[in-house]
Every structure is written in C-alpha cells, then in structure tokens.
Backbone:
C-alpha cells in the first residue's frame, strides 16, 4: 500500500484497503469547477459534484451552530438527504449571517446545480465556505455553476478540490479501493478545512463518494459513526463553524452491495473510518500554520468529565503553544484538567506524554527531561490522561498554536 | 485626579476617589522582599506582606481549579480567612501538581511567614506563582522569607510588587484615598497576572490592603461583589489557573469604620470596584503580548446564554486575532455566538461594534467599513451583542491574541 496518504500512527488501515494514486473519483461520478470571481485571487471558487445514477443514496451531517449559514439551512431543510445526487459549492464567501437574501442565494445555487446535474433541486446540497457576513453575488455563482456544469468530467476531482479550498495549505483528499466479499469498491473523499474547526457533528466541508451500492440507512449509520470518530474528535481552534458539512454519496456503479449488518458493512465501515480519521488528522496538521499534531486520550469513570478534560486540553492555548514550541510543559496540562473539573481539588490524575509518566496522582514524578524533549519534538505527540475510575475513554486530535496562526488570522479580511 | 492609573473608559471612578502617587501601602502595613534564587533571573522572588494590627480583618477568594495548588489548599483550609494578618508569596514556581511534598512546602512557607510577621500560622496566607510541576525548594523560600521579614518596611510595596511578578510587562497596582463620611481611608491593591487567566472566583494574585476598619463580613461581601465585577469578567486566554488568589486585608489604622449597609460601605465598595475593575482591564492589557483590550457586552432574555455568548466571544482565538490585527471581521463574532448556542439556527442576534451596527437579526447590514476600521484600531474596542429577549446583561473584558503571546508561551519553560 502506498504510504502517501495514511501517515498517522493513530489510524488503523485495514488490510482490505489500497490507496489509489491520483485520488480519482469512483465510477459514476463527475466533477467540474470554475473561477467565478468570488475569491479575490481569481482562482477556482465554484464546484459541482454529480452522481450519474438516479439510484444514488446519501447521508449528510451539518454544523449545529446557532448561526448556521443559509446553505446549511437550505441543504438541511429543503433536500432529500437520503437521496442527494449532487453538491454545488463555492469558496471565498461563506454566505453566512446573510439572512433572507442569503437563503435566496443558496436556493439559486441549488437551482443552478440541479439544472446542470439534470436532477431535481431537492437532490442538490449546497455548501459555501469563506468570509462571513458578506452577501454572495448570485450572478457569479450561477455563472460559475453553469461553467462548472459544462466542465463536468470523470477527471474533475483536481479542479473540484481547488474550488472548495480557502486557507488550506495542502490538499486533503484520497481515494481508496476496498475489497469486500462481493468485489472491490472505491471510496473517494475530498475535504477542506484549516481554521474555525471544532466539529460537533460534522466539520468543514467533506465530500465522500463511492461506487458501492449502499442502502440510505446504512449510509447514514456509517457516516454518523465515522464522523463521530474523526471530525468530531478534531480541533484546530475550538471554533465551531457556521458552514460545516459532510456528505456521503453512494452511486452504486460497482454493483457491489453493502448490506446492513453484513461482513461487507463492517469492512466498508472500517475503510471509511480510516479515511475520515486520516483526513481529520490532516486537517489538524493543516491547522492554519500548525507544525505538530497532538492526540490526547482521556480515561476515567465519568463520561462527561472525560470529554471535558479532553476538550480542555485540546483547546488550551497554553498546551497548544507548548506543542508548537516543542516544550514538554505538562504543568499546562495539569492546569487544563483542573479547569475542566472545578471544585474537585485535590484531584488525583495521571499524565503520560509519549509513554513517559510525568505526573501520577496529581504529583510530579521524576523523569528524563532530555528524553521527553526529544519525544515532543516529533510531528505527532501523544498525551494520555487517567482520571479516577474506569469505563470511559475518549480522544481529541488537535493542532498546535504558532505564529502562522496569528499571521493567517490577523490578516484575513483586510 | 491623576490619570496615571484609571485609564479605561469602562471604569467609573467615583468623585470620592483620589489616586495616591507612588502607590504606597496604607498605614499599618509593611512589606518586604528577597531574591531567594527561585526565579532563574535572580530577581526578587519572595515577598511578605504584613498588617501590624492584631484586629486585622480579611476576606479571600481562590481559584476553583480541580488542580488547585498546595498553597491554595493550605490557605483555604488551614487559615482563618476572616482574620488574616499576613501573606507569604513566592514567584518563579507555582508549587502546583506537587502533592504531599508541595503541601509540606506551603506549610513551611506559612510557618516562616508567621514567625516573621509575629502572628499565628492560621493568620498567614501563602501564594505561589510560576512554573507548574516542579517541587519548590523549601530552603530557598524559608531563607527568602527570613530575609523578606527583616526587610519589612512601610515603604516595601515596590519590592513586594517585583517579588510577585512573573511574565508581567508592567506593574499593576495603585493606591487610592477614599473620602468616607467619617474620614478618609486608603486602599492599595497589588496585582500580578498576564497569562493563564480566566478567573472563576478570583484570578491571578491580588493583594488589597486598607487602613479602614471593616467588619470581616463586610470585607467578605465587598470583596466578593467586586471580584465578580472585575477579575471574574476578565480573560486573557480562557485558562483558569491553579493558583489564583485575591486577598483583602483591613488593618484599621485610620480608625474610620465601614459599617454594614452604611453610606460608607457604599462609597468604599464603589472605590474598591473601580480599583479592581481597572486592575482587571490592566491585566488584559498586559495579556502576554496584548496590543488591544476588548469588552463585549451581551444582553438577552436568558442568563446562562448571555454568559455563554460573552465567554465564547472573549475566548475565541479568531475574534482575538482579529482584534490584534485591527480587523473588523465581525463574522467571527457571529460564528462565536452560533457556537455558544447550538441548535438554535436561525437565531436573530444583533452585533454592534463601537456603536456601529454591523449585523441585525442575524443579517449583515451595510455600514461605513473605513470608519469601522478606524474605530477598531483604538486601544479599547467595544462589542455589543443583543440576543432575543431582555432582562439579563453581562460583560467580558478580553485581550487580543498576537505574536507575542506565541513567543512568550512557546518558550516559557525551555
């Protein structure tokens, strides 16, 4: 298997999975893109992704934000989410905080996408990403979608990827072949996201396409579980976006069926899980200037506390700057634990960094500091926390916080 | 009145208040400091603050952290918090995550402080600030406290201030005279704190001394209210510390009594409120490299939601980097509101920045962008949020997030 995509030790890649070079779309899908003048750079900023089969099934997850953008509201409320056939996307403008006009513009995108995809409007999801609070220029998106529609091609994944990206430093996508008992199926995932990322349901934009035949309920189940184990566990800056969307389209061109509760479902699910987990980690690695990615695992006897502690650590600017600096300053982890669990002092907690215990029962323990410094200078750093009790465990992937984050974010709109 | 301390437009300074140049201690107090070799710099790092009167009353607030440091636990559990007479402090080491040995070291500091202050141990609070997870060298603190005790002087406030500081860029302290109906009293406050700051009860270290005669219950009431309106409303990085402590010592040398529910109590309270609010804002201004301070006020019909939104905005790295960059990117404020109130979309919220409405009912409204850019380039920037309903209002003061924060925090222990 090629090692070009699955680089993280935190992802178990099943033997049934083979990476496909060039990350093409599965059979039965076409994509196209256009430069519609929404991005100031003049780059590709409108994309259309289409499944050719009328039998296409789908599943979707959206941000839970109270300020969810019009495209999210339109996709969520005006689509057959179990039978989507196309996605119309723009980058450079999130069409968020844009009110009724924003809803109208999202609906226009949906209409244009449906026309070019030759399907009904309720089978077209719309997504936007970019700056918040600026009205989307409908003339541009409609023109862009017409152009993207004309450009639709089985080889369109490259252009589509460029059209969905904003501050991303590298492409986050891959295609895998998965050997199921009934034959080989292909899954492709195209993802964008670097900042404003702390998924709740889904995060950022992620479009997964497969030529497997997947009943809609199974698609929904698998996407739900895999999103929970991937994007839901990733944080760049703790900021839930207005536009997060993750869509799975199952076109069925392979003819290989993923039956509910079958061996095929298990293998397909494991493959999808590996794909989305690696993408979530890649998103953290691309976390607006990030140098390193951390994973914190927390065990303990109380589920909500385990979750609180993991989030507190993954979102602590002090922990994140230490990660950036290659600094094994575990006192900041102790601080984050204490903050997450107020009024519990003295709390006996254990902290282990890269297999080196540094704090046991809330007390510092001696360790080889030079060795630890070397361990936290690697690209991935693992923190393991034990709270009192047992029975619950969670993990959070997180970016470091460095100068590039400041540079990117202090100068984004101006 | 001198303008040297009260610089913020967000602090109402009562007419009864006059700033005292040089920020001396009130009558009846002495302070001393020593360089005990705890700070690598070799600077002053141990301090002792003593009230001469055996009748001294007091009040205190501590961090709620589940990882509260041994000095906090010793002060909280082994002191007469209504009758403290002295505070023994060290900087350079937080004596946190240090377990039983840390408790022993905190108790030794308490004992040494009591000896030098000539009072009982349960009337001496202990405080530590600095790096977490390193055992405190008791030989150094004891020697330092003996030396600080010998140096005790009515003029000791300067040295004491230096001894309590860590990454602070400037001194945060002031002394005011307050005209009460029965005569003039003096209040001094000495404060340290720049990072790891999101108070819950108290924050950072703050020592308030006054020569007023204040019944302990009144002292507790006033300190509680004023801390809630000042340090509890400030955030640098959203990080509750392991060591936050705020102590009020009332020595009584002026003979002027602050009776419960009297006019004197009201005026004294207003003065203390102004003092602590300005200190809280100064702490944000000193927020590890901060360039600007923001204030967000949130109004609405649901108390917890109002609080959630204010914290989400004040702690958003995206809002904070925009503040740093002088960027009126209010879309990030919309995002933070939506994140704080999941599953409420479409939520009608209003955003006003420096009196310029930019978003009404969740929809962008046109405004003079150049004018807004000029307004957000000032040292203090005000954001006003309106949520549906009425009856609740809160505020949060917050630092921006810039390159200096990264520099300071990526290179702190190493």
Residues:
């Amino acid at each position: 298997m090629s090692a070009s995509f699955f680089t993280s030790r935190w992802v178990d890649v099943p033997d049934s999975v083979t990476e496909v070079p060039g990350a093409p779309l599965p059979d039965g899908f076409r994509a196209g893109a256009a430069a519609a003048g929404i991005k100031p750079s003049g780059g590709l900023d409108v994309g259309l992704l289409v499944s050719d089969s009328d039998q296409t099934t789908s599943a979707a997850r959206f941000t839970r934000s109270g300020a969810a953008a019009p495209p999210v509201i339109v996709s969520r409320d005006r689509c057959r989410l179990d039978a989507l056939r196309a996605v119309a996307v723009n980058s450079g403008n999130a069409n968020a905080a844009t009110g009724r006009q924003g809803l109208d513009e999202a609906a226009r995108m949906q209409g244009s996408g449906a026309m070019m995809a030759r399907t009904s409007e309720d089978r077209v999801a719309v997504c936007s990403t970019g700056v918040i609070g600026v009205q989307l220029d409908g003339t541009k998106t409609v023109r862009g979608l017409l152009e993207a529609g004309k450009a639709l091609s089985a080889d369109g994944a490259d252009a589509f990827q460029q059209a969905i990206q904003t501050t991303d430093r590298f492409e986050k996508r891959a295609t895998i072949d998965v050997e199921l008992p009934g034959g080989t199926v292909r899954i492709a995932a195209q993802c964008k996201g670097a900042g404003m990322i702390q998924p709740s349901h889904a995060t950022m934009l992620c479009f997964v396409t497969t030529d497997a035949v997947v009943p809609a309920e199974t698609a929904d189940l698998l996407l739900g579980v895999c999103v929970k184990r991937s994007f839901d566990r990733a944080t760049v800056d703790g900021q839930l976006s207005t536009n997060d969307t993750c869509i799975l389209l199952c076109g069925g061109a392979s003819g290989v069926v993923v039956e509910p509760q079958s061996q095929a479902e298990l293998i397909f699910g494991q493959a999808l899980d590996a794909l989305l987990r690696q993408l979530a980690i890649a998103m953290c690695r691309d976390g607006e200037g990030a140098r390193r990615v951390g994973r914190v695992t927390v065990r303990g006897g109380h589920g909500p506390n385990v979750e609180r502690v993991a989030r507190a650590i993954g979102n602590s600017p002090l922990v994140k700057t230490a990660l950036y600096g290659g600094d094994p300053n575990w006192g900041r982890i102790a601080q984050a634990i204490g903050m997450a669990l107020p009024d519990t002092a003295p709390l006996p907690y254990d902290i282990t960094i890269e297999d080196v215990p540094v704090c046991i029962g809330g007390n510092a323990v001696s360790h080889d500091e030079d060795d630890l410094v070397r361990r936290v200078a690697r690209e991935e750093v693992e923190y393991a926390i034990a709270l009192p009790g047992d029975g619950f465990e969670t993990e959070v992937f997180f970016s470091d916080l460095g100068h590039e984050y400041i540079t990117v974010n202090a100068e984004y709109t101006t």
Notes: Chain B has eleven helices and 17 strands. Chain B touches chain A through 79 residues (CB under 8 Å). The mean pLDDT of chain B is 93. Chain B has two domains: 17-285, 293-410.
